[in-house]
Amino acid sequence: MNWDWNAVVDFLPHFRDGLIVTLQALALGSVVSFALGLVWALLVRTPTRWVSWPVGVFTEFVRNTPLLVQLFFLFYVLPEWGLTFSALTTGVFAIGLHYSTYTMQVYRAGIEAVPAGQWEAATALNLPLRRTWTVVILPQAVRRVVPALGNYVISMLKDTPILMVITVPEMLGEARLYAQETFRFTEPLTVIGVAFIVVSYLASVLLRTLERRLVR
């Protein structure tokens, strides 16, 4: 099949809509994964076993089951329990929850990398535990883990096409619908392939810039 530039031009409005949804899912999913990951990391460090043990079991279960299974569960099973959300909301939460179990490990590594002297200094200054975490430990830990967190942002971007299976109109979903209507597959799939490369590259550049700023 010959390349048709008219098909590319015709697909661009669909591509724009899909790109917006993809970026929304990525941004919101990243926020959810970073926030929940930090919560999990703090909870598994608590000395109370009835808190740390269930959190550890839950995150291990989520990390070792496919994202697609979790997505289907949230989208099809939760409504049977009276919990109904939009497809995009469900997709964002599924991606965020799944990747939070990975960012949890990143946060744990960052926290454990903080020198013991920092903890001892906070204790010597008689800082409250909450202030020790928010002022001394977490700022240092987060700066150390920005590169690893950035890698998961790019991984989440590459997993957004899976949201197509629950009718989220992200880029691949828009390309599939366009191809089914026009029987032109080469142009839309090529466009979104290039778009993923460009967005991934821009995200990596932004993350490297942020990393350099935090290291200063």
From TrEMBL:
<keyword id="KW-0029">Amino-acid transport</keyword>
<dbReference type="InterPro" id="IPR000515">
    <property type="entry name" value="MetI-like"/>
</dbReference>
<feature type="transmembrane region" description="Helical">
    <location>
        <begin position="188"/>
        <end position="207"/>
    </location>
</feature>
<dbReference type="InterPro" id="IPR014341">
    <property type="entry name" value="Ectoine_EhuD"/>
</dbReference>
<keyword id="KW-0813">Transport</keyword>
<protein>
    <submittedName>
        <fullName>Ectoine/hydroxyectoine ABC transporter permease subunit EhuD</fullName>
    </submittedName>
</protein>
<dbReference type="InterPro" id="IPR010065">
    <property type="entry name" value="AA_ABC_transptr_permease_3TM"/>
</dbReference>
<dbReference type="InterPro" id="IPR035906">
    <property type="entry name" value="MetI-like_sf"/>
</dbReference>
<feature type="domain" description="ABC transmembrane type-1">
    <location>
        <begin position="19"/>
        <end position="207"/>
    </location>
</feature>
<feature type="transmembrane region" description="Helical">
    <location>
        <begin position="20"/>
        <end position="43"/>
    </location>
</feature>
<dbReference type="InterPro" id="IPR043429">
    <property type="entry name" value="ArtM/GltK/GlnP/TcyL/YhdX-like"/>
</dbReference>
<feature type="transmembrane region" description="Helical">
    <location>
        <begin position="81"/>
        <end position="99"/>
    </location>
</feature>
<keyword id="KW-0472">Membrane</keyword>
<dbReference type="Pfam" id="PF00528">
    <property type="entry name" value="BPD_transp_1"/>
</dbReference>
<keyword id="KW-1133">Transmembrane helix</keyword>
<keyword id="KW-1003">Cell membrane</keyword>
<keyword id="KW-0812">Transmembrane</keyword>
<comment type="similarity">
    <text>Belongs to the binding-protein-dependent transport system permease family.</text>
</comment>
